[in-house]
Design a protein that fits this description.
single chain; 138 residues; alpha+beta; Nucleotidyltransferase, domain 5; four-stranded mixed sheet; 4 helices; 4 strands; 38% helix; flat
């Protein structure tokens, strides 16, 4: 949807075909649902990833994350990065920054709701260089 929306002021035939394909998918997915289960824990766990220089027009990377609270999916986001990353490690590190910001927001919300003061937070990333950068206190 985000790619198609870039062309909404001057759509071409290919753009409209993509919109119709998206609408057909949404129509077929009406019976799909997210299931929320009651769990004994309120741990916060996130997963983040990015694809380096994926946009052919401006070489920007896309970042994404999804966050689980108590084992239930509560937040997700996919966004084009605002700057051009010079490496996969930088692109992944920027994705981690977005994920950590969301984890901290959800943690503060849980504290405000007095649900769990000691909720553990974990962020999972698959890039060793970005993890090393994040673990470096300097």
């Amino acid at each position: 949807m985000s790619v198609v929306s870039r062309y909404m002021h001057d759509p071409r035939k290919g753009h409209m075909e993509a919109v119709y394909q998206i609408l057909r998918y949404l129509k077929s997915a009406l019976k799909k649902e997210l299931i929320f289960r009651k769990n004994d824990h309120v741990s916060i766990e996130g997963y983040c990833d990015s694809n380096w220089a994926s946009c052919a027009n401006n070489r920007r990377s896309n970042s994404g994350y999804y966050i689980f609270v108590g084992g239930n999916l509560v937040s997700w986001k996919s966004k084009k990065q605002t700057v051009v990353a010079r490496s996969t490690a930088e692109a992944e590190y920027r994705a981690m920054i977005l994920g950590v910001a969301e984890l901290l927001y959800l943690k503060s919300m849980l504290v405000e709701l007095k649900l769990d003061q000691e909720a553990k937070m974990k962020l999972w990333c698959d890039n060793k260089s970005a993890i090393s950068i994040a673990n470096n206190p300097v």
